[in-house]
Amino acid sequence: MSVSIYAEASPNPESMKFVLNQNLLVDGVSVDYPNLEAAANSPLAQELFNFDYVGRVFIAQNFVTITKTQPDLGWTQLIPELRQFLKGYVEAGGPIFTVDPAAEQKAAQAATAGDPTQQEGQIAQKVIDLLDNYVRPAVEQDGGNITFKSYHEGVVTVNLQGSCSGCPSATVTLKSGIENLLKRMVPEVQSVVAEGVLV
Asked: What are the C-alpha distances in Å from 128 to residues 2, 29, 132, 134, 135?
């Protein structure tokens, strides 16, 4: 199958979103590799880290967000090279993952769920639904992702991935957008904190 790919700018000037006309993952599952060591499960991400300017790789349903480490390198010279590599790799049937990330994420969530009180569990579920239905689609548009990590005593902890990590506007989005939405819809929520934000 012929693969077409286009590049889309993200709010993070160091990140570029490469959108494919086919799926790499099931909807709602994504993986974020902040470095080569973290990418052990993805031969595709490992190959991308061979480009000396690639500092982070985020893979979602039908796009790959690449964050560069060299601000002086312009995207105009990098996009054709990266697009050509991705097109060739996917068309050749190169392996994206060695273990299905959906199965991996379910196991990790079960391990970190702990034993919240029933009330905290119900609040957490409301927060997860809001993030999945309202926040995640917008964040994905920008080449990133947000995942729920925990809810405890009024504090929601989320993970920001892809272009959101290290994005200058991520903290503002988190506090003025996401926190306000959750406080309005779920009165028990007092604040939202993020992991994965490099400020």
From this structure: 36, 14, 6, 10, 10
